[in-house]
Amino acid sequence: MLKTLLDRLRPATPVRIDDQMWRETLTSLPFLLRLDEGERQQLRSLAQQFLAEKEMAAAGDLQLTAAMQVSIAAQACLPVLRLGLDGYRGWTSIVVYPDEFLVPREVTDEAGVVHEYVEPIAGEAWDGGPLLLSWADAQSGHPDANVVIHEFTHKLDMANGDADGIPPFDRRLHPALSARRWRQALSDAFERLNAELDLIEAEIPPDIDPESPQADPYFARLPLDAYAATDPGEFFAVSSEAFFVAPQRLRDAFPDWYGLLAEFFLQDPLAMAKA
Ligand SMILES: [Zn+2]
């Protein structure tokens, strides 16, 4: 599977970030506007280091320009602005697809029958392997979602094993964080979201297919995208997107969980927001 997905890749040309490209990157990513000048400088230097350490490659017919690479680097480095690039160690490749791409899946049902199918996805982070992104989805068109932050927080989470929603804590940077405190806040918030989702699903009239766009207004009442209810790993990744891109709703719904995310990322997007 790795081979079929990766054999048509073209390595990207190495980039340096010049002033104009950096200005354009900041303008195209509105959630970076809350950063002050010092933080922007710090993000730029991290992004530069990131581009030197990681290898990007284009899949399909994508022309992977320098501006695209800088945009991905800037978004990827926001969660680790205070943590540094160490959280992304142990793997190097980022594969960028022009649009959603198909990934072969295999599931075994309760009767033991194996079903094979392909799933169109916008991004995926493989444990110890590459991170895959769709450029169409990575361009921050959505006001409260961000596929780059989503996949890179999975990578942070995987730095200590499975994507279980519990990333590694650093004794020096996170003296007050413990896996116990984290697990408690995560499971409280996760269970509440699932309970709200159950109520909403029960309310959807039988003539509306829950997978159809007609059901969207029901799910829009959830404080987080319903995908967060999949498992604790997805809950962490989806909350991290909201934390950086649309933090107000997340803090209103899950103040304790928001507080822990701020403690982990060593950033508080609402406190940093410029009036
Ligand atoms: Zn995910």
Helix content: 40-55%
Which ligands, by name, code or SMILES, are bound? zinc ion
User: What is the mean predicted local confidence, pLDDT?
Assistant: 91
Q: Using the coordinates shown, work out and report the CATH topology of the largest domain.
A: Cyclin A, domain 1
Text of the CATH class of the largest domain = Mainly Alpha
Largest beta sheet, briefly?
5 strands, mixed
Estimate nothing, just give the exact number of structural domains. 2
In whole angstroms, the N-to-C terminal distance is 49 Å
Which regions contain 5 or more consecutive residues with pLDDT less than 50?
A: none
Shape: globular
Strand tally, please? 7
The CATH architecture term of the largest domain is Orthogonal Bundle
Task: Write up this protein.
With 275 residues, this protein is α/β, with parallel strands linked by helices. The radius of gyration is 19 Å and the shape is globular. Helix 2 crosses helix 4 (66-77) and helix 10 crosses helix 11. The chain folds into 2 domains: 2-158, Cyclin A, domain 1, CATH 1.10.472.150; 179-272, Collagenase (Catalytic Domain) (3-Layer(aba) Sandwich). It has 12 helices and 7 strands. The strands form 2 sheets. It has a 5-stranded mixed β-sheet with strand order 1-2-3-7-6. The longest helix is centred in the last third of the chain and has 25 residues, at 179-203. The model has no long low-confidence stretch (mean pLDDT 91). The structure holds zinc ion. Zinc ion binds at residues 150, 154, 234, 237.
